[in-house]
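Work Package 3 (structural annotation) set out to generate three-dimensional models for the target panel prioritized at the project kickoff. During this period the team completed the workflow that converts sequence records into discrete structure tokens, so that structures can be stored uniformly alongside our sequence database. As a representative example, we reproduce one entry of 126 residues exactly as it appears in the project archive.
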Amino acid sequence: MRGSHGKFYWNELMTRDVARAKKFYADVMGWSFDAMPMDGGMTYWVAKMGDEPVGGIFDIRGPEYKDVPESWMPYIAVDDVDARVKKAVKAGGKVTKPVFDVPGVGRIVILQEPGGAGIGWMTPAS
């Protein structure tokens, strides 16, 4: 079941050229995109295949993302993101973006696992 603890839940493309990415995935996959306003006037793009959300596109042009490479970021559903972050840090993980809430979506953290790979964990909203 999607959203179950320990299963991959969401994928998000982090890019500096949202228009190029949207055109590529629209042309190649047939995806459409819905705008989701974010804090600070940014827009998150929810990619859809028909009516089904399949991923997202996140703009990383801001200076706070200068060292972040363009890439796909997977998210794993967890039962309690706050408790799991404590375990991750104890096990050698590093928090790269502290826990935050996205209304209607869930509670999210971005981590680096001990080998350096980035991963998002989220407790999906009910």
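The helical segments are 18-29, 81-90.
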